[in-house]
Amino acid sequence: MPEHQSRMSDRDPKAAKRAERQVVLLFMVSILGTIASLIFYFAFRPDGTTAGVRTSTLSLGLAMAFALLGIGLGAVHWAKALMSDHEKVDERHAIASDAETRQGAIAELTAGADDANIGRRGVLKGAMISALALFPLTIAVPLVSSVGGDWNVSKLKHTMWEPGTRLAIDPSGRPIKAADVTIGSVVHIIPDVEAAERETHEWITEKSKAIVLLVRLDPRDLKADQSPAGETWSYDGIVAFSKVCTHVGCPVALYEQQTHHLLCPCHQSTFDVADGAKVVFGPAKRPLPQLPITVDDEGYLVAQSDFHEPIGPSFWERLK
After folding, report:
1. Does residue 42 register a pLDDT over 80?
2. Cβ atoms within 10 A of the Cβ of 243, count?
3. CA-to-CA distance for 251 and 189, rounded, in angstroms?
4. Helical H runs in 116-244?
5. Secondary structure of residue 229 in the 3-state scheme
6. 69-81, pLDDT tens digit by residue?
7. Interhelix angle for 137-146 vs 13-43, to 10°?
8. Fewest Cβ atoms nearer than 10 Å: which of 44, 172, 238, 264?
9. pLDDT at residue 36, as a whole number
10. Can you tell me the distance from the alpha carbon of 174 to that of 227, in angstroms, rounded to the nearest whole number?
11. What residues contact residue 55 under an 8 Å CB cut-off, 6+ apart?
């Protein structure tokens, strides 16, 4: 074993006391972060606007970050500066130890605890226990307060797409014409709504279900151009599919032009756009739902209807 290098906190009682105060301060930061998160949770409730959601999320995130960071840094600094750091060697032996060996192990643990002066550092212990005890409130309070919320799962079966709704480019919201889409191009699509509506919290929630990826292929490359009922769901090689992966809901947005494959970046589920977005690789079990589209009198791309099946991952009341 190399020669043991003692720390300043081992040589200087003042340095040890200073390190102890630093650890206590870090645990106090965690306690204050927990208290702040509870205050922010009730003070900055989302008010239905994008700014309100942003403020609520930012304030909660920062407070919880300080609450958890204080615990982590405090524990690390305590271990580095105050706990025993003497090197020890244990010979490998059989799992079952005799009584004498077990007593020796207990004695070593007791000596390590005594060396760390845990028993004589009441303020430090109190700060650590308080921080650990209070931090779960940052998670428990929001969870408990959300009990009794909206559990209407029928909302998962429908999106805001309606017959005649124009397809608009995300995020600008500009309606798109079929003539604007060239073969091989990919466009991120959202429903066309008024600009004021796009600033509401409800719009953000509904948009997350209605996001679509629009791709134009050579019509000759389409293997599945029609719905199971025989209706045409594409327009001149333009197809639209839900961006919400049917595995766990990640956004599917990586398009391989040569293979016509859509790739989910989370778990590599791969879908064939030319064949009804069927799964060709990965953990997803269902094709991406297709949005039936056509054009209106002005040449703008519009939805024929909503998706004909729920988008995203399976859930308990899904029939297929």
Report:
1. yes
2. 24
3. 13
4. 122-134, 137-146, 201-210
5. coil
6. 999 999 999 988 8
7. 10
8. 172
9. 95
10. 28
11. 44
Residue 160 structure tokens: 């805001």
Q: What's the CA dihedral at 16, 20, 22, 23 to 10 degrees?
A: 140
Q: Are 237 and 217 in contact (CB under 8 A)?
A: yes
Q: Is it the case that residue 319 has pLDDT exceeding 70?
A: no
Q: Where are the alpha helices (DSSP H) in the chain?
A: 8-11, 13-43, 50-81, 99-115, 122-134, 137-146, 201-210
User: Tens digits of per-residue pLDDT, 134-165?
Assistant: 988 888 888 777 666 666 667 778 899 999 99
- Phi, psi (5° rounding) for residue 49? -110, 160
Query: What topology is assigned to 153-303 in CATH?
Result: Rieske Iron-sulfur Protein (2.102.10)
Judged by DSSP in three states, 117 sits in coil
| Domain ranges (residues) in the chain | 8-146, 153-303
Q: What percent of the chain has pLDDT over 90?
A: 49
The reply to whether the predicted model has a pTM over 0.70 is: no
- Is the confidence at residue 271, as pLDDT, over 60? yes
At residue 114, does pLDDT exceed 90?
no
Cβ-in-10-Å burial (0-12, 13-18, 19+) of 223 comes to exposed
CB 235 within 8 A of CB 288: no
What amino acid occupies position 149? Answer: G
Separation between Cα atoms, residue 210 and residue 219, nearest integer Å: 25
The C-alpha angle with vertex 142 and arms to 137 and 145, in degrees rounded to 5, equals 115
Pair 94, 12: CB distance under 8 Å? no
